[in-house]
Structures are given as C-alpha cells and as structure tokens.
Known about the structure:
By secondary structure, this protein is an alpha/beta fold. 27% of the residues lie in helices and 21% in strands.
Amino acid sequence: MTVTSGTPSDVDTVVETVAVTIDGVTIDVPKGTLVIRAAEQLGIEIPRFCDHPLLEPVAACRMCLVDIEGVPKPQPSCAQVVSDGMQVRTQLTSPIAREAQEGVMEFLLVNHPLDCPVCDKGGECPLQNQAMSAGRPASRFEGTKREFDKPVPISPEILLDRERCVSCARCTRFAEQIAGDPMIELLERGSKQQVGIAADEPFDSYFSGNTVQICPVGALTAASYRFRARPFDLVSVPTGCEHCASGCALRTDYRRSTVTRRLAWDDPEVNQDWNCDKGRFAFAYETLDRLDAPMIRENGQLRAASWPEAIAAAAAGLRSTGTQTGVLVGGRATREDAYAYARLARGVLHSDAVDFRARLASDEEADFLAQHVAGASMAVTYGAIDAAPFILLVDFEPEDESPIVFLRLRAAARAGRTCIVTMSPIRSRGAAKMQAGWWPVLPATLADDLRSLASGSATSDQAAGVLTGLRSPGAVILVGERAAASPQALSAVVALAGSTGARLAWVPRRAGERGALDAGALAGLLPGGRPLGDATARAQVAAVWGVSPDALPQPGGPMTTQAILAAVASGALRGLIVAGLELDDLPDPRAAAAAVAGAEFVVSLEQRPSVVTDLADVILPVASVAEKAGSFVNWEGRIRPFPQVLRDALSVSDSAVLGMIADELGWAGGRWDTGSLRRELEGLGPWAGARATAAAQPRHPAAPAAPAGDTAVLVSHRLLIDAGALQTGEPHLAATARPTVALVAAGTARGASVTLTGPAGSLTLPVAESEVAAGAIWVPLNSLGCRVYSDLGLRPGDPVNVTWGGTR
C-alpha cells in the first residue's frame, strides 16, 4: 500500500506501508518500522532496556522478545523490521514470548544487587518495574553475586556502580551516536562485562548527564543528586531552560522548596529527549547568596528596607532622572519581564536608552536585528536544520553556544543529509564532531570573505562548493552573536543570503535575548519589531499602554549597553536601571563599573550580590526562574512558556517590581503581572509594516595599536562550561570544564606556555596546537584563569603581545 503526505503547497511524499498483525490487531505502518514501534502505536507495551527511539537498535538486553509466526524462536522486537502480513504475538498473547521474557529477566537479576532502598533509581526504575510485571516471582539463583568497587567516577559529575549494569549499551551508544564523545565503552566479556573508560581519558562530554537519565538501572548516577532524595518525595514540574537560546524543555524536581534535580523533557520538535549538562546541573545559583530584602543607600551605606520604603525611594530617584535614565535589561530576562522593562522605559520614563545585550555589540547589529529578526516568523527551525542539504555557520560554535543546535546538526551530518561549513577563526572540537568543513577567518576579514561569496568574486574550490551548497533548495545560514564584533559582517551575511536564496537565522547565546528583542527592549524598537519612529507603530503601542503617542520618546539612533554606560559617564544620562547584568561580560568591565559608580541614581533588580548591587542606590531582590512563571523565546522564534515551580516562594518577578515602581510614578495603564503582559504582547503581535533602519552609520571601536614585539590576533569565544554567574555553586559541573589553554595553528607554537599582554595586564596559559587561523591565538573568553576583558583589556580581533615560555 502507498499513501501520500504533504499539503498542496508541498511536494507530495509517497510513503509505502505494510500491514502487520500484533496480538490479533492489524495495523498499517511505514515500511521499515520496527516491531516494537508498531506495537507502541497499538498501545501494547513490550518490556525493554536497551531500546531507545533515538538510538540505533542493538538488541543487547533481549528483554523485548516476541513470538513471530513462522520464525522458530523468539525475536527481539527492537531490532526486527516488520514485513507485510507479519503475525506477531507479544507476552500478552504468547506463552512462548512470556516465558522468554521471564527467562531474560531472571538472567539479568542473577548478578544485579537487590539494593533498591539505597539506589537513586529506586522508585522510577524500569528494571524494578519490569521485574514485577515481566519477571518470575522467585529467583532460583543461589550463588554469589559479582561485586565491584563503587562508585567509580568516570567524570567529576558522573558516578558508575558497575554491578548494577545490565549491559544495555544505552550510555555507550548515546555517547558515540548522539554526543560524538565515544569515551565510555563496554569492557570485558560474559559475567565480567562492565562499562568503563580509559585510565587517562575521563568521560569529557557536555552531554554526559543524559546517560544518567536514560540508564534503565542505577548504574550511572549524578554526583550532584546522589542520595539527595527519593523520587516519590519529589514534586515534578515541566519547565524550560534559562541558560541558552536552544529552548530546551525540562522537568524540574523539588523537595521542601528546594530544587534537587532537572531532567530533559521529551519535545520532539526542539530538544527531543536530550539536554546539555549546563541546563541539567547549573541551578544551584538559585539558592546561593540570595538577596532576601530590599536595600537603600543612606550616607554612602546600604541598609535593609521594607518594600514600600524601597519602592518609594526608587520612584523618587527615577522621577528626578526621568528621561535621562538608561535601562539595561541583560540577556537573562524572560519575555514578559523584558517587555515590562521596555514598557517602563518608554511609557513611564519616556526614555529610549534601553538595551538587552550584555555583551560586545555594535550599532550595525541593532540595525540587523530590527530589519531581519525582531518579530519575524519562524523561517528557520530545527526541522529545517534536519532537512537542509547545506548549512553555513558564521562565527557560531553550536556545541558551546547552543548545544541542542549542535546535536541536531551532528545528527543531520551523520545521517548524510547535510553538509556543514563553519566560517570561524578556529575549527573547534564540536566542528570536527559535526564533520564540518572549515573556512578560516579573522574578525577583520570575515566581512570581506562574506562579500566575496555574495558577489561571486571568490574563485577558490572551497568558495565554489559553498556557493553551490547555499544555492541548494533548503540551504541555511546560521549566524552567531559574535559576528557583531566584526565590522560590516552582518550586512555582508544578509547580502550573501539574498544572493544565494539561503534562509538566514540569528542564534544568540543567552536564553532571554530573542524574547527581549521581540518585546522591544532595544533602542529604536517597540514590541513586535515596530519602529519607534513610525507613527502607526507608535499609535498601536500607545493604545495598548493607555498613553498618548506623543508620550513615547523619539528615536535617537542605535544605542548599545556600552553606549548607554558611556552616556552615563559623560553626564548625558543621569540614572540607570540595571537587571541581571554582570559587568565582567562587557568589553570594558572597569569603565562599566566606573560609569555605574558615577551615575546620579542607580536601581538594581537582582537575585544575588554583584558589582552593580555594591554600587546601587536601591536594590530590589527579584525571583529566580524557578520562583516565577514566564516564557523564553528560542533562536527559532518559538515561544517556550514555563510555570512557577516553587509555589511558596516569597520572591517577586521583575515585572511585578517594575509595576510597583510604575504605580508609584503615577502609571495609569495596564497591569504588570505576567499573564497580563503576555496577553498584551500577543495582542500586539509582529509588525507588518516597513522595518526600522539605523539612523547612524555602524560604529565599531577601533582596535588598539599593535604592541611592540611579537604579536598575534586574539580570537576567542565563551565555552559552555565557564566562569559564568549562573554556574556557581555546582562544583561537580565546574570540574568538567575543559582545560584553560591557548590554541595556536599547528607548527607555530614556540614554547609550552605563552604570556599574553594587553592594556589591562597579562595572563600566562599552557599552549596546544590545533586548527586555528594563521596569525591568530585562541583563548577562552571567560573561563577560570582567563577572563579576556578584565585580564587583558582586549576584545576578539585585537592584536595581543605574545611572549613564549618553556620548551615543547
């Protein structure tokens, strides 16, 4: 039988089906379907341990044996493909299948310890459940069970209890097939078989926590959760991840108002069944050094205050600074909170000095975001990545900056569907695992290379291959946020997309950036991508806010976070509202701190003490992600809502705090609760008119003069596990960070270590050779022992003085 799928606008796809009968019920399924999947479509559950729908079948555990008519012995349903007319009987209707499964279960329990009361998997264990449902009531084994030393740390985060392993190979297959980190393997044979690692090669993977979740027994456990709780003591809430723009669906478990663990939640359209270790383990910050009461500064000293007193003080200070107030949202805010900051800035303070980019940014980027990203539909999705024949990555390292994008890219490349090329100063470990081709570029040459591709003037074989790939139907360009640091690169990548027909998507690193952009937390832009200078756009937003269009500020041109701080330092702006902003993330932390210190009035909305709170005049503590409801918008433009996890939390959201300030300042418009803000945003919708254009020419800070002596071009990006503020309080995760080393091109290292010197100071790092653009030296941007902005006072693309040390 054949059927067609697709809409009239799509090319019809012919799907050949076969009829299979399972336990007396006949069903048509696509040709190539496994028996176990066909049974699932009928609601028939066949016991299994090794089977996982996203892993290649291996038939290792033999628990899923079924009786197939015409086949002399039971067959593993997880590896048996259906054929037309096949007759299958499961354990529900076949004594042969039932007895075979009971025998397998008895065999698995021969050496498995019966330590369920102390096992972290107890209460949610497939082996425990299936031993009761598909096993024999009593064991005939009278010998001595095998024993191993336990636990074995195969990484700082993952612990192994070898005697519990049932050799299902889920963990080893995930590491090799999905993550591309084949560092764990099944060792030995027979009763001695066990999971292990090489003596000098730990399980160094950004995705190691997934092996704990998919392990069907308690063989793999997480050091941060081990012996902390029992599953039946936990309250589970479906949530989202706040760490990057991938948009993972998670499940958060808590006990006694304390989050104990986070797990990946099944979402086939986004993260499937996976998440990264940062999203899984980095939540301890939510209870670490929390600000638990408002504070106001009197006579140079901060003191605790009541909420009414602190709100009154904040309103009084902001009333005095008024339109000369800058609002720095940061990249961690939810969509609703970012919208509240934008509404406070424009509708209450009548200021357009607002930005969400807590990083190196440019005026050109603001124009690019307003023209091509804000309020745009989901033109590129994970599904588009899966199907794209060619993908060009521009200054984007997905394994470090958006790990689920990395997993989807790797899967597409591994399946042979997609060719990937990365334009970057370094061919990273993640690029190698994606089998990506490499086009080496430096920040100063990125725009030229993109323009040569767009114009067709590039003549190399690689350029011809890239152009051919980009002209293929369905080709995609993914540009990272770091491209904003390369002059004219974003306009060049737009031209390349236009000349080839490839679809273009922007992938920021932080979870809150796309939502803040759509919420209007960018100078010159109102919610939904509406230009602040457009009369119709102003009227639409003013009507929703209940203010006059004339009350909204006039656009003053692009203004980055750095420009806002510079305006404060110069006196052009007098006040600041700062939320979730780590000054160390900015290109000049010292200048940023000096600007905050010199501001006439500063209000800080924060969860934990920081440099900003040390300098603020009013500190207002706000809720963490687990303590409030909201939503993020992932890189696709997909809205990812999440509920409040900790219902008894006393903290209040940013938007609620801003609402109290607005009411104190005489606001008479809409409400400030999350639900009302979300409805306002949905009511406004995306802008359908002409897009905004930057009023000023792009400005990029001039690179410092090249220092005397041996120099190189400094290139850098943030690693996934680094010294970020949201990773503090979790030592096991921190210990999995990759070594802090400097990387240079093969054959160019002249010592075992290198000292880099910039205007702010020096740092010395060990050296390794890798695939790095000629004339460049790569270091991590913000890792332990290497904070480029504060340690060197340099930015990626700047020349750096190099002094070699030691012998290789």
